[in-house]
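Lab meeting, item 3. Inverse folding demo.
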């Protein structure tokens, strides 16, 4: 190959790189890879309501450390469930939860443990486990 051709190709590569023609491919782990599980513990009756503690476990099932996570958790509000308090999470809306400052980054197979105390009417003896839930992790 002539020196002129080499320079021309090198120039084309440099121009393409500067213009962003080369895409950076994200690793396969950049997909949403997490699990969200729940465990209910009855805490007693308070003010005519059953109080339940719902322990959540959100796990990074990928192979890359995360930078943050989000969870959409639908508690059975129509059955009278009321969230009395929560910890290790930040409430964004009625169903959306984000991490607190210290538990957003999760290494592979590491978990965050948000918790909720939920009151339900005494007539409702079922634990107020979520009716639906999903999680997402950002890498």
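The presenter then showed the designed sequence:
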């Amino acid at each position: 190959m002539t020196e002129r051709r080499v320079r021309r190709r090198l120039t084309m590569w440099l121009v393409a790189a500067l213009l962003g023609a080369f895409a950076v491919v994200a690793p396969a782990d950049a997909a949403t890879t997490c699990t969200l599980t729940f465990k209910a513990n009855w805490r007693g009756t308070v003010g005519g309501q059953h109080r339940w503690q719902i322990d959540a476990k959100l796990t990074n099932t990928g192979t890359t450390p995360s930078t943050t996570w989000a969870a959409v958790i639908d508690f059975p509000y129509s059955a009278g469930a009321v969230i009395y308090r929560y910890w290790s999470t930040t409430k964004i809306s009625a169903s959306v939860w984000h991490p607190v400052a210290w538990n957003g980054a999760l290494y592979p197979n590491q978990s965050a443990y948000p918790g909720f105390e939920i009151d339900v009417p005494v007539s409702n003896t079922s634990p107020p486990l979520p009716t639906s839930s999903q999680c997402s992790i950002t890498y």
